[in-house]
Amino acid sequence: MKVAISYPPIVNDQGQKAMVSQNRNVQFFQKPTYLLPVIHAQAATSLKESGHDVYWDDGNAQLKDYDKWLSDLVAWRPEVVVFESTTPVMKFYWKTSQELKALLPGTTIVMTGYHSMRRPEETLDESAVDVVLRSNNLDFVLLRLVNEMSKNPFWRLNSNIEGLTIRTSEMEYRSTGNFIQVEPLDKTPLIDRDLVRWKDYAFENGNFLNTPGTYASSVVRDCMFGKCTFCRYNGPDLTFSMMSVERSLDEYQDLIENHGVKEIFDDSGVWYRGREARQFAQGIIDRGLHKKGCYFGINTRFEYLDEETIKLMAKANFRFVLLGFEAADDETLMRLNKGYQMEHVEKCLTWMTKYGLHPHLTIMVGYYWQTREQLDLTVKTVKNLMYRGLARTLQVTICTPLDFTPYHLECIDQGLLLTDDYNDHDMSKLIVKSPLNHDEYYKAIREMYSITFNPRFIARQIMFLGKMRKRDWQFLFTYSIRAIRRVRQHIFNLTRNEGKQTEVNKHN
Amino acid sequence: MDSFQVIENLRLSESTFKLRTERPNVPIRAGQCFSVGTKDLGINREYSMYSAAEDEFIDFLIREVADGIVTPALGRCKPGDLVEIGGPYGEFCLPVLAVAEDSFVFIASGTGIAPFHSFVKTFPSLNYTLYHGIRYEDERYEADDYEASRYVAAVSQPVSGRGERITAVLSRAELNPDSHYYLCGNRQMITDTVQILRDRGVPGGRIFMETFF
Lengths: 508, 213
What we know:
heterodimer; A: about 500 residues; alpha/beta; Rossmann fold; six-stranded parallel sheet; 17 helices; about 40% helix; B: about 210 residues; Elongation Factor Tu (Ef-tu), domain 3; 2 domains; 11 strands; globular
C-alpha cells in the first residue's frame, strides 16, 4: 500500500512554526528545531521493509509551506495518511483531515498521538479521520493495520487488531479494545535513515554541539518510571519496553561509521540505568566509538546514575544529559510524583560536572498550586546550580496541562482550566488558575533564562576552559552564540503574554 | 523522600531478602511501589510493596544484583539503619469493586511476586490463582502465605528432576478470559505470557502489567 507519514506545516498568526514531532509539547518558534520523530520513523521503516510504499512527508523539516505540502501529498495519491497530533494542534488536524478527505476521499486517515489516543471518539466526531490509533507503539500496530487493510476489504467491520478505534460509518465507531504492547523493542527495525531524510534534522537542533547530529532509535519506549503526573508516559495503558544494549551499539556504530554522525541523542523518556548503562558505555569504548569525535546525549533522572556509571559514560564521550528539574520544593515534587530530592540533584550534578558532562535542566513553572515561596525557591536553586557550574544549560517551560495526563485531568476535575480551547494549550501562556498573578511566573521564566547572560555564569564557563576539554571550548565559542539566539527566542515566546492575565475562555 | 528506620532485614534465599521498614504516614494501596535507597547513596530504585496496605510497616522483597549498587547496599542494612523512601507511586492496583466478585490470575517471575503477596495479604477473601516462575526451589518466598490450591510454582532449574518455565505451565492451564490478569516480572516472561493470553482469547483490557527494568 502507499502510506504517507505526514507532518503538515503549522504556522501561527505570528508566523511561527509549531514543533509537533517526537511526542513533544507543542511550541511555536520562529527558528524551529527539527526533531526526528523516532517512533514514526521506525514505523515508516517497518512498513517499507514489509513491502509497502512509504512517503516520509515532514513538511516542517522539508521547509514546505502548507499549500506546497498539501499539493505534494495529494499528487502522491496515498492510500493511507498517518498524522501525529497533540492537544494544542488537535483543531488544526481535525480541519486538515477534512480538507484532505475532500481532495482524497478514498484515502484512509490515521491519527496517532496521546491526545486522540485518550479521547478517540472526540477526534472521530470532529474530523474526517478514519482510524485513531490508541497506542504509542504505532510501529507495531500500524504495520498490522496496513497489512490487514491491504488484504481485507472489510477490515473496518471485522479487524480484531487491538488498540484501534475505527470509523465504520459516518458517525459510528468500533473499538477493538485496549492495546497491550509488550513486544520487545528489538523486534522493531532500526530507522532507515535515508527513508526519513535524516539530514533534514541533523543541523537545526539547539542541543547539538557537533553536527551533523541525529536521534538514535530510543532504547526505552515510554518510561521505566512512568509515574510523573504531568508526563504523557504515565498511565495503566502504557508500559515500557527496552532495546538490547548490543543492538543499540550496532546502530551507533552504523551512524558514526557509515553516516558520519557527530552527535547522537537518545530521546527515551529515561535512558538505561545501572548495569545496562555501564554495558552500553563500555561497549562504546570497546568498539572504539569514543574516539570518533562523536558526542552522546541522553535523558535521565537525578537518582538513576551512580558515580562509577557517570565516570564510565564520560570516558565513552557522553556529553549532553537532559534532566527534568521540575521544581525545588518538596510539595511540588511530591504532587508530581517526581521521586527525587535536592540531595540527589546536588550529587548527580556534581558527579556529572566532575567528569565533564554537560547537564541540561528542564524546569517548569506555573503549577496550579505554585506559591511565591515555591517559585522563589526554584529560581534561587536554579541560579545557584548554574552559577556553580553544576548545570550548563537550561530550558524553562510553562507547565501546561495537555493530552489528558493525570495533571491535565486534575485541572479539569478541579475546574482549574481557564480555557477549553485546545489552541490555548500551546505553552505560550498560563492557562490554569494559580495562587500568583500569571506575570509572576513569566518574570521567573525571564529571570532564569537571563542567567545565561550573567557575568557569574559566563565566568564559570571560562573557568571550565582550564580543564582543556574540547567540548568546553566548543560550548563557550560555538554553542553559546547559538544559545543566546535561542534564549532570546524562548524569552520572547514564554513572556509575550506578560501583563495579560489569561482570561476565562470557555464555551460551555 | 524521607528517611525511615529499618525494622528487620531477613534473608529468604541466597540472593533475596525481605526488608521491613517503618511505614510512611500516607495512604497506600496494595500494588503500589516506592523509590528506595540508602542514606547518602545518591541513587535509588523502585520496588513494589510486599506487605499489606494497612500493615504498620512496609516490606520490600528485593533480589540482590551482584554487580548492582542499590540492592547490595540495601542488603547490608541492619535494624535501626535509615533508608530513604519516596512514594507510593503507580496504579498497578486491584479495581476495588471487582475484588469481592471477580476472579484474578496473578503471574509473576522471581520477586515480581511482591505486589501479589500484598494483594493477598490486603484482601484475604480474594478469589485468585497465583503462578510463580522461579529458578530454584528456595525462591518460593513465604509460599505458606498463599492457599496451597491457589499457588502454582514453576521451577526452571530444580536440584533434581526436569525444570519447567512458567510459560509452559500457563500454556496448559485453564485460563478464563473473564478473569483479571496481573503480570509482574521480567520483560521476557511478560512478553511471552501476554502472547499466551492473547492466543487464549483474553482481551487486552483484562491484562495489567508491571515490568522489571
